[in-house]
Each structure stands twice: as structure tokens, then as C-alpha cells.
Amino acid sequence: MKQYILSTFLLVLVASTSHAQSCNCEELSGELSSMTIDNDHCWELDGCVTIPNNVTVNIEDGTIIYPRAGSGIVIERGGKLNVNGTSTAPVIFTPKLIVNRTYGYWEGISYGGRAPNNESIGTITLSRTCPVVGGGNVSNDNSGSISYLQMHCSVYGLTLVSVGTGTTIDNVQVTHTVNDGFSFYGGTVNATHLASFNAKKNDFYVINGYVGKLQFLFSFRKDPNAYTATNASNGFFAVNDISGSTNTPLTRPVISNYTTLGPRYCNGSANANFRNGILVDNRAAPSFYNSVIANWADEGLFINGNPCIAQTDADILNYSYNSTYQNVVADYSNAGSWASFGCSFIDMDHWIVNDPTISCSEDGNQFDASISTLGYDNTSICGGSSNPDFSLDLGTTDLDAASFAPSDLSSGFTTVGYRGAFGSTDWTDTWTDWAPLATAYCESGLRKANDETAQLRLIPNPASKQTAAVFTLKEKGKVSISILGGINGKVLFSLDLDKLEAGEQKIPVDISMLHSGPYIFRVTTSAGLMQQHLMIQ
Question: Which domain CATH number covers 462?
Fold first, then answer.
């Protein structure tokens, strides 16, 4: 076994560069014709790529698509995009090079459908670099399907404009967006298993008469800087429209099993620009059930303004069987006159805590004082793993049980016994990436090496002052070692070792100069790339 001691002074500091990755990809640009985007090679988006009326585009499982700066995909009314990922081979949209894995590198994916909305002219136009238009009267309109999709480092994430129930959406992860993770502008589409990670604005945004059903939603702010500078960062934000008009249909989605872990969950404190787990404004009337709202800088639930408060008296804004935990200001609050407009015309307390004398009051809510532990694995979730465990420990959780008794949940929802997005099984396991800024993709050699990641071991791990990289070098040659930040993906140190003999290697590495936290430890050989997550204590 060969051993080499890599001392601190031998490591070369690299401020913000990464290893170049050569990829010969096919290009997608302009207006597409019906086609299949296969997984035999990689693809690059160039500019605003559109799928027009009567065109169907299919993406095979395991396909990786690299958007160029400012590019995006728009599915126009009558067009269809079918994303056919699987739990073991998701479809991935990500900037090609690690150095470009930054917030807002590309536009995102936008669907325009023919379902109703509440705009007075019946049409919604989002004027973006890649504009999208939606609207019509076809509630069951079909814009395609999405299964097992990762999207990283876009401006807008996944945008759905007047998309209908004929469209199916399940298992989608959106990370590191400048704007919202998931946006629903009108429409009727239903969706399940949606995960938003480090969106800077809102993880979920509903507006313009969206009336769909959403179940198993996860909002997670691990990055303490994942906020906007305008006090506009929320887990879930619902408005009827921008002006708060009485236009119908009202924005009234029904949501069950939503978990939001705000910025304080992993960071202890939070910038004041982080706000609420749920914000209801401008006459919206969403209904939340069986959800967990935790660790936000202001309230768990905030209802803003008399028009929204009045929806509680009409019994169309509902909030039952939810748990709020360690939100700084309060479990819940409102701005306006509850005594003049709210349920029972008394106060928010009587509405939210199930006063049996009030017909419009809510039921089964649980608040911070009765919760000692959520039951999630904080160490795994807040560490540096690309595949943390979000499952709920049913033996230790203090969360109350779920209920599907409300009439809102009588159809279109899966009945489960737990509150929040996760039960004893983590549905994000195997197909998501929670450290996407440092993941290496590209050429077939790199892919093959990543499949053999288990051949690289770090001993010990976690480590404090030194760890050793243990792996087998199949043929004599050069070996490159690099250490990347687990959150920002920057290469912090790198070293090239020339002419190592083939065979088993054990290379101790001095890590005493690095602060505690998550890192990516990477070894590149002529056969490809191997990497592991390293936790420094």
C-alpha cells in the first residue's frame, strides 16, 4: 500500500475555480419539433427553447441537460413536455460547470396551459427573458407530465401558468432559485412530492385563481443567505392576484402534508428578511391540513389584511391539524380587524384553537409549547450529505397524528397517519441531490467513476485534523485531489500527484486549516472521478 503525506503547505489554495469538464453535448435551441431527448449523451439549452402547439417532446430517464446562461424552456399552450425520470435515474437540469452553479444562472422551465385563471382578460402573460402565456377554459388541459426531475440554479424554478388537471406532476426537486421554487399562476393542476431547497424568495407561490390540490410538499432553507433583500422570503405565499381584487375563481388551493424547515432549523438564527412559513395575502383563501411549519424568523402562519381575514368567516380559508414549531415571533398572527371581519368576529385565537361554539373554527392544531422534538434527524439534515435522511422517527416525534376528516380532503389525497411531508420513509431518497453545487457530471468517464464512488473511502469521517483517502488506482498515472465547500461548491484546495504506481492507495490529508462543516472530497484519476462527502468537526 502506497502512502503519501500531504501537508498543509503543499496544498494549493484555489479561490473559485473548478476542474474543467469536457462534454460533447447535443444542442437544443429555438422552436422544437416533436422529438425524444435521449439519454445516450448530454444536451445543452441555448437561449429560449419553445415547445409550440401540437408538439410533444419526451425526455428519457437519466438524461442530463445543461442550460447555458440565460436559457430556458417554455411549453406553449397546446404543447407537451413529458419528463420521464425514475427514482434511480432522474432527469437533471443543471449548469454544466461547478463554477457556474450559482443562483439564477438560467431561466427555468415554464408551462403555459389552457386552464382557467382569474385575470379579467382570461390570459396571463409573464414578461420574462423567456416569456410565457397561459389561459383558457379547459380545466382538464394536458401540458404533459413530470416525474423525477431535478432543477438547479435557475431564476424562476418550475412555473405553471393556467396548467390543467390533465397534466401530471410528481417528484420534482428545485434548488437555488433567485425567485420562487414552484409558482402556480391560475390553473387546476394537482401535484405531489415537490421539494424546494434554498429558494431566495418563496418556496411555493400561488396566485391568479389557482385551485389545485397539493400533497407532500417540502420547503427547506439551509443556506442562511437564501433570502431576498425585500422582506419577501416565505415558505408558502398565497395571493388572489397582485391587486387583491374580488376576481374569481379565488386562489383556493388545498394543501396537505406540507413541511417547511425555515432558516433557523440548521442555522440557529435567521436574517430579518426571512419571514413566514405561510403568508396569506390579497384576498387568497388557501386551506392547509396535516402540515408542519417550523423555524421561521416571523410567524408560522400570517394572515394579512381584512379581505383575507374575511375568508375565515366564510369558512373557505381553513387551517386544521397543523403543527407549528419554534417560529420566532409567534405560532400565528394577523394584520387587520378580526373583530370586524374574522370568523366569529372575536379574535384569531378562537378561530384557530377549535372553539366548539363557533361553526367556522378550525380543529386539531398543535403549537410550539406542546412540541419538544419534531422527530427529524437534525444531524443528517444539517450535515453535508447529498442524500440526507428526512424520514420521521415515529417513535420520538411529538407531532400529533394527521386527520383526513375535513371535506376538502375527501378526494384527490392519499390518507396517511402523520403530519408533514415525510413519514417513516423519505420519498426524496435516491433521486434528489442536496449538495448539487458540487456534483460532477459530464463525460462518460466521470459518470462511470461516480457509479463507483464506494471505491473511495475517507478514514476517519467525520474528521478533525486529518483524514486519509483510500482507493485503488487501476493503472499508473496522475492523481488529483481537491476539497470543495459542501454548501457553495467552491474548490478550496487542490493538489496534483504525478506518476503514482497502480494499486491500493492510502493518502493522508491534513485538513486542520479548514473550518468545521460539510465538504466534498474529490479524487480524479485517468479512469474518472470519485468523490465522498467529508464532515469536519
Answer: 2.60.40.3080
> For residue 103, which amino acid is it?
Y
* CATH, residue 348: 2.160.20
Q: d(Cα 39, Cα 490) in Å, to the nearest integer?
A: 28
Q: Based on the domain organization, do 360 and 509 belong to the same domain? A: no
Q: How far apart, in Å, are the Cα atoms of 34 and each of 47, 72, 89, 303, 334?
A: 19, 18, 23, 45, 50
Q: Mean pLDDT of all residues in the chain?
A: 91
457 part of a folded domain: yes
Q: Does pTM top 0.85 for this prediction?
A: no
**How many Cβ atoms are within 10 Å of 165's Cβ, its own excluded?**
20
Q: Which amino acid is at 89?
A: A
Q: Is residue 431 in some structural domain?
A: no
Could you read off the pLDDT of 245-270 as tens digits, one per residue? 999 999 999 999 999 999 999 998 89
- Whole-angstrom CA distances from 228 to 10, 77, 194, 231 are 40, 31, 22, 7
Residue 206 lies in a domain: yes
Q: Which of 53-62, 120-129, 479-488 has the lowest mean pLDDT?
A: 479-488
- Within 141-201, strands assigned E span 144-152, 158-161, 168-175, 182-185, 191-197
Rounded to an integer, what distance in angstroms lies between the CA atom of residue 142 and that of residue 145? 8
How far from 529 is each of 17, 164, 197, 439, 522, CA to CA, in Å?
A: 17, 43, 26, 11, 7
